[in-house]
Amino acid sequence: MPATDFQGSSSPFASIGRSILSLRRDQVHSMDGHHEPGSSQEQELEGFQRHVADLFQDLVGGEELLSLRWVRKLLNAFLICQEEFRVIFFNNRAVVARAPLDRLIAEFFERSVKALDVCNAIRDGIEQVRQWHKHLEIVTLALDPGLKTIGEGQLRRAKKALVDLAIGMLDEKDSGSVLAHRNRSFGRNHGPTKDHHRAGGHFRSLSWSVSRSWSAARQLQAIGNNLSAPRGHELMQTNGLAVPVFTMNLVLLFVMWALVAAIPCQDRGLQMHFSIPRNFPWAAPILSLHERILEESKKRDRRNSNGLLKEIHQMEKYIRQLSELTETIQFPLAEDKEADIRNAVQELSQVRESMKEELDLLELEVREMFHRIVRSRTEGLDCLSHHPE
Amino acid sequence: MERMGEDGEDKLIAVARHIARTLGRTDTMADDILHIFSTFDGRFSREKLSDDLPAMSSLERRLREHVSSDRPIWSDSAAASAFLSALDDLIASGDLHPRADDLLQQCMLRLEDEFRALMDRPAGTIDSGDEEDDSDGEDRIPVAHPVPDYDIIIDAIPPGTVADLHSIATRMVSAGFAKECAHVYALSRRDFLDESVSRLGIRARTAEELQATPWEDLADEIARWVRAMNVAVRILFPSERRLCDKVFAGLSQAADLAFAEACRGTAIQLLAFADAIAVGSRAPERLFKVLDMYEAVRDLVPEIESLFSDQYSSFLRSEAVAIWKGLGGAIRGIFMEFENLIRRDPAKAAVPGGGLHPMTRYVMNHLRAACGSRHTLEQVMDDDGGGGVATVDHDRPSSSLAVQIAWIMEVLQANLEAKSKVYKDPSLGFVFLMNNGRYISQKARDGELGALLGEEWTRREDARVRRWMTDYQRGAWGKVVAVLRTDGGGGAGASVKALRERLRMFNAYLEDVWREQRGWVVTDERLREELREAVSGMVVPAYRGFLGRLRAAEGGRGVEKQLMMFSVEDVEARIGELFEGNARRS
């Protein structure tokens, strides 16, 4: 068969970005892609380990933990790891189809598919936060810091938006009962709180991409199932390639776990144990991040939160503050009260501003992660299947 | 309250007003309280307390009456227009007094409720105003039913209600309540869209669930999805756009916001399904369904782009395009998997009699069917992001699809050649190759597949079949004919004895070959004839010549009856019985 008819002109190394369709001709025919277990491959593997460690070390230090910026940085770290893994995979494609590496890689791809559902649930979660953001906009619009005086009317509008927002932010399990008590009373005399039916987040929006019974906690467990560090014989049999596969598995699991921790999604649950032998250079930063996020989730004011995102925390805090202030308000406003209100609104405005753009970017990046996982898996499967057993 | 100097008094007066307003449930009561204040202290003169009140009070009284009504205002059109005109008066007065502003805000909250009630009012009960109807209105959200023709628009809300909604929306937007209004609108429409899409048989599914779904079920789901996608993009969303543009006529920003918020979830849900299918299994039988999806999305992209052209929906535009490309990738993946399956099809089981292999039949028919979507497939293959398959061989068709198909044919042929080696008798292997080769070239001769592979390809395929035919003749009949060949030139003819011995051998060979090859199969009638003719052409003249030499050697006497088992005609007849397969004999 004239394999050369189909070969691209560039060398396989330069062509990582090319689609596998054009590359596979080489794969099918060049069975000599075997790597000498020499220095270059070892260097490549070690470099990957170090780089993963650096990326996660950066996340320990840099941006404020669990802020939107931090989450985006986490995604970025994931994408870089994924890309480097892809290169390693490709450079060693002649051996990936051999047992037991083929099995390890197939399992990794299985986990990837599970991660896709997490990506979708997170996308819905971002949409959820965006809904809250809309109410936040109304609050800060009603009590615009530029207003000379705060009138009762503005306050009433803000209070209603606050109630909507608070209901929207209730965890799903609590919200059902609120919705069940929809009250379409028309009179204002029942007080504003009775009128919030269907206010806030539209809870159904949580299941655009996942069914009602889907559980983020269970999904994470499924991704983490049977995930253990490679044993001695596996290292031998795979030329050491079991290590990057394990690394990528762990990175995938941790990133998904952290996303679920940060962003609202269906049936969150953070009970997950990461067993990573300390001799992996990236073990320390990842375990440290895990511990700190877990700590955050145990804090009293965060325990019932539907996302550990720093911005959600701030929203909750100032909303509570503002609600308490407006609850007991007397007109005319006392000066100190008014100052407190203005202060809380100021803070909320800042949260609102900082969230707006970041949310959009995060959404795009979650989609990018989705597509990259798909692409890497597709190419990987092609690689595996192109090697005749 | 800017300056402290007058503040004390201002505040005092404000408190007095506040008390009057809070305690005074009606205007008369408030008025009475203010009167009491004014007699209490000089600072509370009627003028100061009520500097702007007299002008407000009648307007305020009218508005407050509406705002505190327990009945929906819009259940009575006269009440509704009275309310609106009072509200317009309030807005027109340009009164910035806190009290007027508060009233305005209260009116807005009330308008929001009225707006919601109108949005959710079941279509059939336009003027009922019956509150009981409203209490369970949600169960009767009007929904779109499947329709055969996409060229329709749904009017989910009756025109009268739309006009009412518009009158409310205008006031809310002008008072700065655009976000609230758009939000209420969107929530209601979202329910409608959710419900409509679920009636079309679409529900949220994860990629994992879809992977676990049996293909037959999934095929049904895909068919439903294609329909739902068309209904959504050609009917539901345009209807939503139209409704939105009516309710928010002249308020384009609010309209865009409301529309984007209303449709986003449904659109994402629909697209997510395609995403999940695109990453799913790549079994060849999926090709046609995924092609359906690809074509559906491709054809809808222009409409999606124009529907969601507003600033709030750019995400959906890029999503739709990404998913379109993703489905293209899935199709390429299916082709690749197809090729892998062919390559890996095990060579163990030989087809009895060297007949047509089921794989050949499957592959060729699959490809022919696939080429029914040639245009789409060419698009898909050309869109292979890498652009790697650039080398153009002048002997070969050059489109990516053509290259792809030619490649699959090569993989098929390589696999068939491996399978032909399984036959113990190499000649049978050649028959097997001929059978399959002829089938391939016939299937590839016409139609889109033929056009893609090109004449040159078919010619080469035919040449291969001819070569196998020659190989077969040489392998299966070489020995037979060799027996008949008397060493030319040498001695003046071999001895009679030797010739007789050769005839005996010929008889045995022919008998063997006939017994053996009678059971072999050549499925194509023309090929069978060609093959028989070729064999006859090789054997019969040789046999006739041999008999002539034998007779000559016998000195004109006839050849012994026992020795001459076959006349020339018998030999022809035997050859004519070859390749019929066992079935015919049983």
UniProtKB/TrEMBL annotation, chain A:
<dbReference type="InterPro" id="IPR008511">
    <property type="entry name" value="ROH1-like"/>
</dbReference>
<keyword id="KW-0175">Coiled coil</keyword>
<keyword id="KW-1133">Transmembrane helix</keyword>
<protein>
    <submittedName>
        <fullName>Uncharacterized protein</fullName>
    </submittedName>
</protein>
<comment type="similarity">
    <text>Belongs to the ROH1 family.</text>
</comment>
<keyword id="KW-0812">Transmembrane</keyword>
<dbReference type="Pfam" id="PF05633">
    <property type="entry name" value="ROH1-like"/>
</dbReference>
<feature type="transmembrane region" description="Helical">
    <location>
        <begin position="241"/>
        <end position="263"/>
    </location>
</feature>
<dbReference type="GO" id="GO:0016020">
    <property type="term" value="C:membrane"/>
</dbReference>
<feature type="coiled-coil region">
    <location>
        <begin position="334"/>
        <end position="372"/>
    </location>
</feature>
<keyword id="KW-0472">Membrane</keyword>
Automatic annotation (TrEMBL), chain B:
<dbReference type="GO" id="GO:0006887">
    <property type="term" value="P:exocytosis"/>
</dbReference>
<dbReference type="GO" id="GO:0000145">
    <property type="term" value="C:exocyst"/>
</dbReference>
<dbReference type="Pfam" id="PF03081">
    <property type="entry name" value="Exo70_C"/>
</dbReference>
<dbReference type="InterPro" id="IPR046364">
    <property type="entry name" value="Exo70_C"/>
</dbReference>
<protein>
    <recommendedName>
        <fullName>Exocyst subunit Exo70 family protein</fullName>
    </recommendedName>
</protein>
<comment type="similarity">
    <text>Belongs to the EXO70 family.</text>
</comment>
<dbReference type="GO" id="GO:0015031">
    <property type="term" value="P:protein transport"/>
</dbReference>
<dbReference type="GO" id="GO:0005546">
    <property type="term" value="F:phosphatidylinositol-4,5-bisphosphate binding"/>
</dbReference>
<feature type="domain" description="Exocyst complex subunit Exo70 C-terminal">
    <location>
        <begin position="224"/>
        <end position="576"/>
    </location>
</feature>
<keyword id="KW-0813">Transport</keyword>
<dbReference type="InterPro" id="IPR016159">
    <property type="entry name" value="Cullin_repeat-like_dom_sf"/>
</dbReference>
<feature type="compositionally biased region" description="Acidic residues">
    <location>
        <begin position="128"/>
        <end position="137"/>
    </location>
</feature>
<feature type="region of interest" description="Disordered">
    <location>
        <begin position="121"/>
        <end position="142"/>
    </location>
</feature>
<keyword id="KW-0268">Exocytosis</keyword>
<comment type="function">
    <text>Component of the exocyst complex.</text>
</comment>
<dbReference type="InterPro" id="IPR004140">
    <property type="entry name" value="Exo70"/>
</dbReference>
<keyword id="KW-0653">Protein transport</keyword>
